[in-house]
């Protein structure tokens, strides 16, 4: 009888749906429904397989989850590979196979492969008790594992290298990539080796010298009594959790937070689709704080700013007052504005001017006198001041910031500014009634005169002429740009005497403003008045005025007076990159490498991070300027093509400069941001080799075109030929080789094969592996 009693139990254990398999043999498979939907670890603590998505019973994740807890918390889920990982979701008719050749393949109901880990030759697979699902060689070594390709969670014994990222999901039930990715801690401290979640539940960073830096400081809890995980949550906070394995009166069976890392220590990135709201956690003109009482992040607006949408606070904030007009004189600004203070907050990516060894009072005075300045950040330790214009984004908050922020707001007695908090002020002062009545009467008369004029014009005018709207002031375009008079700029440039350069639409002159600092400027005078040029002028003002990045040349103002059209830029002391690459002075290799990365970041901003995607269309050394610190800044947006949010390509006439133009300009296909990627590839090789792409004076015929010669050198394994005579670069051939490989990827004839600028920056940084680029030596040798 006792034997009969145990027979059903033994049969249950042998069922495929619950049987723990240490080694999963080749030929095994899983389906979303039925008895074979997952593989268990030996202890049964973890499972790998198909997990239904909450609220969507027809869709499944390929995932690893905690199998013995009530809510089956997911610790890993499959995403497509770079450059833009996308969540993998499948329907009920799909199938996961461990094929006979040792590959893992996920196929949809039609038999089309939708995901694979790009590994073949595995001897078997295994779901380990650590929560790591692995493909393994015959000798037991791991060929691929979920620990090496994390999603939003790390588990005990998991180690992340600098090339790995945690990417938070959108919310608890939507596993798609959300706002945040945890990667910035790699750049917090130099010589970082790994991020470790060790077997005793401690999380720390290891440095090359063996030093450990704690990430969380929670108490170490028993791994026998608790499950552990650490997750980058949708709000951007990196939290460490534990879950009791056994129920007791002291602990509820639910995940509880052991410790967390405030998102203020790093700058979360938003995806390209969300950059209309800014790249920070809470959007423009805001900062993020962590409420320790409920362990949740909160969005906060700057003083006297309010949320654009109270229901969606991550869309950012707007000022509740009229911002400073660039038509105000300096004395008026000093009287009409004051500062509100915040402590230990910063927006590191948003400053446009820096002062060293300056007093706090002087820093504030400079901001009051600058119509573009909305916020200043002051660091007491070294008396450094940063000026920032609206909007500010990507906040950095916490005790480690150690800076004081001053937000420019109207003074209480500023009658020139509209106070939105006093709707009844007209009822409190008789003079406002008199003023209001006068304005109403005057407006009525003007309206009547206007209507009569319209009627007369409709009667006698038979021809309508459409004109491009002119820009008469900064208010016309809604930007904090200064509207200069032509006389001001003529005086600043001493009658337009010193020429800095010439472009397709005008000449650039050096000038000096008559302000306290004697600010040097670059004035671009557009010397044509055709309709297309007028459109170009308007587009350039609106385009550059809305962009702000440390690797883009800033637009300070404009002049639109009569037939005169001028743009006023910040002056770049060291001029263009052109003279340092092809002149007598050669920049050091480390500086050239840094300049390449800075140009890449500037293009990344234009393509993916500013409010409207911008294709520059004429990237070349002459359009890359260097400031006094030899920081690269992209200039000349006159040829920029703007794409709407739902637009991925545009058709236009051929633009750009010979030697830097992508092949698709000469074909009947749409133009995308990949034309800039191609041009960047040419510049990258020029930075490596310090020579022009087209060099007619080179004796060897096969070296006349740099892009073809670089490809030949790479294929022959002689990268050293490209930097011959450059000792610094010769001793750093590993980086030289990496930069050349990135350039060859950028120069692919097929635009779809070129990487995005995000992937380019990652490859230049060494953050991702770079596969061998296809050989394009068989392409047409005709030079664009």
From TrEMBL:
Annotated ATP binding sites: 525
Signal sequence annotation: 1-20
Top-level taxon in the UniProt lineage: Eukaryota
Organism: Digitaria exilis
UniProt-recorded name of the protein: Receptor-like serine/threonine-protein kinase
Alphabetical UniProt keywords: ATP-binding, Disulfide bond, EGF-like domain, Glycoprotein, Kinase, Lectin, Membrane, Nucleotide-binding, Receptor, Serine/threonine-protein kinase, Signal, Transferase, Transmembrane, Transmembrane helix
One GO MF term: protein serine/threonine kinase activity
EC number, UniProt record: 2.7.11.1
């Amino acid at each position: 009888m006792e034997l009969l009693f145990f027979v059903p139990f033994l049969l249950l254990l042998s069922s495929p749906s619950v049987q723990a398999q240490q080694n999963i043999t080749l030929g095994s498979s899983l389906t979303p429904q039925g008895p074979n939907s997952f593989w268990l670890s030996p202890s049964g603590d973890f499972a790998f397989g198909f997990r239904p998505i909450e609220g969507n019973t027809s869709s499944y994740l390929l995932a690893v989850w905690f199998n013995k807890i009530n809510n089956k918390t997911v610790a890993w889920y499959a995403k497509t590979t770079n450059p833009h990982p996308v969540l993998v979701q499948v329907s009920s008719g799909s199938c996961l196979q461990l094929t006979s050749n040792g590959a893992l393949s996920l196929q949809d109901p039609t038999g089309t492969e939708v995901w694979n880990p790009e590994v073949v030759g595995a001897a078997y697979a295994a779901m380990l008790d650590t929560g790591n699902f692995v493909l393994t060689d015959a000798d037991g070594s791991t060929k691929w594992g979920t620990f090496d390709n994390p999603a939003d969670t790390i588990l005990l014994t998991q180690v992340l290298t600098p090339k790995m990222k945690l990417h938070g999901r959108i919310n608890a039930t939507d596993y798609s990539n959300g706002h945040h990715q945890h990667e910035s801690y790699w750049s917090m401290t130099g010589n970082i080796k790994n991020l470790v979640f060790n077997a005793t539940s401690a999380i720390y960073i290891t440095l090359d010298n063996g030093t450990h830096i704690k990430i969380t400081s929670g108490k170490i809890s028993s791994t026998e009594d608790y499950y552990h995980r650490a997750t980058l949550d949708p709000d951007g906070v990196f939290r460490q959790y534990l879950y009791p394995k056994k129920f007791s009166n002291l602990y509820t069976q639910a995940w509880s937070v052991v410790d967390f890392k405030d998102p203020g220590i790093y700058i979360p990135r938003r995806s390209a689709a969300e950059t209309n709201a800014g790249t920070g956690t809470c959007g423009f003109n805001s900062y993020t704080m962590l409420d320790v009482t409920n362990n949740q992040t909160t969005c906060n607006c700057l003083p006297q700013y309010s949320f654009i949408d109270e229901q969606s606070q991550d869309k950012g904030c707007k000022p509740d007052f009229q911002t400073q007009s660039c038509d105000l004189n300096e004395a008026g600004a000093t009287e009409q504005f004051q500062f509100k203070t915040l402590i230990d907050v910063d927006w590191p990516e948003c400053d446009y001017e820096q002062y060293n060894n300056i007093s706090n009072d002087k820093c504030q005075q400079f901001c009051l006198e600058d119509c573009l300045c909305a916020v200043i950040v002051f660091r007491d330790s070294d008396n450094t001041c940063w000026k920032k214009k609206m909007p500010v984004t990507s906040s950095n908050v916490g005790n480690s910031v150690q800076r004081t922020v001053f937000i420019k707001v109207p003074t209480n007695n500023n009658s020139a500014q509209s106070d939105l908090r006093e709707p009844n002020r007209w009822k409190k002062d008789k003079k406002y009634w008199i003023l209001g009545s006068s304005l109403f009467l005057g407006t009525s008369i003007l309206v009547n005169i206007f209507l009569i004029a319209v009627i007369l014009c409709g009667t006698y005018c038979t021809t309508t002429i459409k004109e491009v709207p002119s820009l008469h002031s900064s208010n016309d375009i809604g930007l904090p740009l200064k509207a200069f008079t032509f006389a001001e700029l003529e005086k600043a440039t001493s009658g337009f005497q010193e020429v800095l350069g010439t472009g397709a639409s005008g000449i650039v002159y050096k000038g000096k403003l008559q302000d306290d600092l004697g600010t040097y400027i670059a004035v671009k005078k557009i010397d044509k008045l055709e309709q297309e040029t007028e459109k170009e002028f308007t587009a350039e003002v609106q385009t550059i005025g809305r962009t702000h990045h440390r690797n883009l040349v800033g637009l300070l103002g404009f002049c639109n007076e009569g037939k005169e059209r001028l743009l006023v830029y910040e002056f770049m002391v060291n001029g263009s990159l052109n003279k340092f690459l092809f002149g007598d002075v050669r920049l050091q290799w480390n500086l050239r490498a840094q300049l390449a990365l800075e140009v890449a970041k500037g293009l990344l901003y234009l393509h993916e991070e500013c409010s409207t995607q911008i294709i520059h269309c004429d990237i070349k050394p002459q359009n890359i300027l260097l400031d006094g610190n030899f920081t690269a800044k992209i200039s000349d947006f006159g040829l920029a093509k703007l794409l709407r949010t739902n637009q991925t390509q545009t058709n236009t006439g051929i633009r750009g400069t010979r030697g830097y133009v992508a092949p698709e300009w000469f074909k009947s296909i749409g133009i995308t941001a990949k034309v800039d990627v191609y041009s960047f590839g040419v510049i990258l090789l020029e930075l490596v080799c310090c020579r022009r792409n087209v060099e007619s004076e080179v004796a060897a015929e096969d070296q006349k075109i740099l892009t073809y010669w670089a490809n030949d050198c790479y294929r022959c394994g002689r990268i050293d030929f490209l930097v011959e005579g450059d000792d610094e670069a010769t001793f750093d051939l590993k980086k030289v080789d990496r930069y050349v490989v990135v350039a060859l990827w950028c120069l692919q004839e097929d635009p779809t094969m070129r990487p995005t600028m995000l992937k380019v920056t990652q490859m230049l940084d060494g953050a991702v592996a770079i596969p061998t680029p296809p050989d394009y030596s068989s392409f047409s040798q005709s030079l664009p």
